[in-house]
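Board work, copied verbatim: Stage II sporulation protein P
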Amino acid sequence: MQNRILIFFGFILLLFISPIVVATLDSNATLLASTNTSTEQELVPTTQQEDLAIAEKIESNQLVYSTNSDTRDTPLDNTKEIVPRNALILFTHSHEAFKPIVKSKDGKTAVYDSTSNIMSFNETIKNYFTLNSITADFLEFNTMDEMAKTNRKFSEAYNIVRPALESQINNKKYDIIIDLHRDSANREITTLNYQNETYGKLYFVVGEEHSNYLANKSYAQKMSTQLNELIPGISRGVISKKGDHVDGVYNQDLAENMVLIELGGIDNTEEEINRTLSVLSKAISTILQETLPTENVN
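↓ predict structure ↓
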């Protein structure tokens, strides 16, 4: 009789606690599924996550090429002393624009724009240069705004920016001076597909109508070679210009370490230009660290 009573109460107790056990198991399963889903979502790259990754790598002195490329996250050679360098960047044709960027930001198709243009990459350039121990200064002069104010011709752009450029480099010594432009060629010419990612190709222009142009040309060729060692085919090489219908000097007579770079083309996207800028900053850093004296130049 006593055994029957115990079995009866045991059965009642089992009926009472079984819903609790089931609910607990369901809750744990839901939590596990939620955790797995959350982990999967965290692995999906987003703009915010990429920005955070860039910020983290600024602290660790690493370069981010892109989100998927095998060449990303390449650190500077920590076995050598890394000497901070100074760069000056100007935009002689300051309103040169990329059609996809203008379309997404302003809703229009244009290759020149007063707001969404090549100057919009200032912050990106500064970040990538910082990753590679280069301090980037930007010439505070909007050439095409000045041209519009004074009713000057497009062909006069280099003459218009020259006084401001000359004053800047007389007041501070720079390890490299870059005049950054956007090429007018179409996507087929200006785009590189490398390891399942696309980049805006670039090339260098050297004016041969001044006495010391060979120094500028040698410097540009060295940089072009370094770029192609990092990402094969990203540089289209060095083009020399002289004669009618070209400037022929491009203010390069002011400094042997001045280069004119055509970055991407009218059809390249913001992401493609960002990837190219990351590679360019690494190439410049490598050259500056290898070729300049170890003492910092202020």
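The chain has two domains: 1-44, 50-291.
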